[in-house]
Amino acid sequence: MSVDPFDELIEALRCLPGVGARSAQRMALQLLERDREGGRRLANALDSAMRTIRRCERCRNFTADELCRICASARRSSEVLCVVESPGDVLAIEGATAFEGRYFVLLGRLSPLDGIGPEDLGLDLLARRLDEEGVREIVIATNTTVEGEATAQYLREMAGSRGIRTSRLAQGVPLGGELEHTDRSTLAHAFSSRLPMS
Amino acid sequence: MSVDPFDELIEALRCLPGVGARSAQRMALQLLERDREGGRRLANALDSAMRTIRRCERCRNFTADELCRICASARRSSEVLCVVESPGDVLAIEGATAFEGRYFVLLGRLSPLDGIGPEDLGLDLLARRLDEEGVREIVIATNTTVEGEATAQYLREMAGSRGIRTSRLAQGVPLGGELEHTDRSTLAHAFSSRLPMS
Hints:
Two copies of one chain form a homodimer. Chain A is an alpha/beta fold. Chain A folds into two domains: about 5-50, Orthogonal Bundle (Helicase, Ruva Protein, domain 3); about 60-195, Dna Topoisomerase Vi A Subunit, Chain: A, domain 2. Helices cover about 45% and strands about 10% of the residues of chain A. Chain A has eight helices and six strands. Chain A has helices at about 5-15, 20-35, 35-50, 70, 85-95, 125-130, 145-160, 185-190, and strands spanning about 55, 60-65, 80-85, 100-105, 135-140, 165-170. In chain A, the strands form two sheets. In chain A, strands 4-3-5-6 form a four-stranded parallel beta sheet. In chain A, strand 5 (about 135-140), helix 7 and strand 6 form a beta-alpha-beta unit. The longest helix of chain A is centred in the first third of the chain and has 17 residues, at about 35-50. Chain A starts with a helix and ends in a 6-residue tail after the last helix. At the A-B interface, helix 1, helix 2, helix 3, strand 2 and helix 5 of A face helix 1, helix 2, helix 3, strand 2 and helix 5 of B.
């Protein structure tokens, strides 16, 4: 007996993050009952994205072209390069800041225990860019996890040996957050890194 | 300039219930970064489901065949017919009970103000089944909304004129619920419909 298309759809929807059996069923019913057009559009968009989206040849961000929009833009400065772990980080920084430099997307972080070394993060490509593009500052925006910090340290040395300035995103208590609900290590770090008020 | 496949995927994902801009972005990134195979499978499952799933010719439930699994099964009794509003209700009842009869799926509820009359709910098809299949009891499992109740009343009259017994799902306080958190109308109904303890 062949697999039922309805069961198959529910099973396939569960590959989406945060979607369990119940929400998958709700999604399948909603599409079938009320939005078949949306379901067809989603099928096409998924197919096209999975087929055409690849890594930008310059920054490793996702793109359907040879170069991503940011790398292809003549209006972005090559002097400041922001290094992030994932394409989602690029979207977050683009959405929150007025940064006008370019990016480099590691697609991971150094993690020797998992066998992830510099070559897996495209650091040879990054080195070539540092040597050729006249980069003057690297903004290191890796996550503040152990691996993210180790990666940041490695990047700092790569930049230092080339006389390139590095900076790291400021760490401290989040804006609008209440001290009472801030986790202990963040609070301890913010306390010991306190700055003079002008 | 053509639409970017990444933006298009995010936009298309938003047709899923409960998925806003942020979760759509998270889903797109997750599929592209970690599960392209899952993304391709989902594209195919969606395409196949939207193309092949239609209404069962006997009960109006979703199926890819002429008859749904329940209607096609020789082991289900035709004597008891459970009438529900949507295919999700069939799944819920199948998951929670040991019901061995058959179903009829209205795909809606009577709502004169929205121009939804008996013919839109396939009640002519239901009448034919009542006349031909030897149904002895109708379990009315429409929702306990105003329209659901009106639909239940209409179904009761359809059955009554044919000498068919009707029943309605019991209404009252939910099992495992706390009285304090039960809504007022449910509590008032449960109180006035109290039953003698044996």
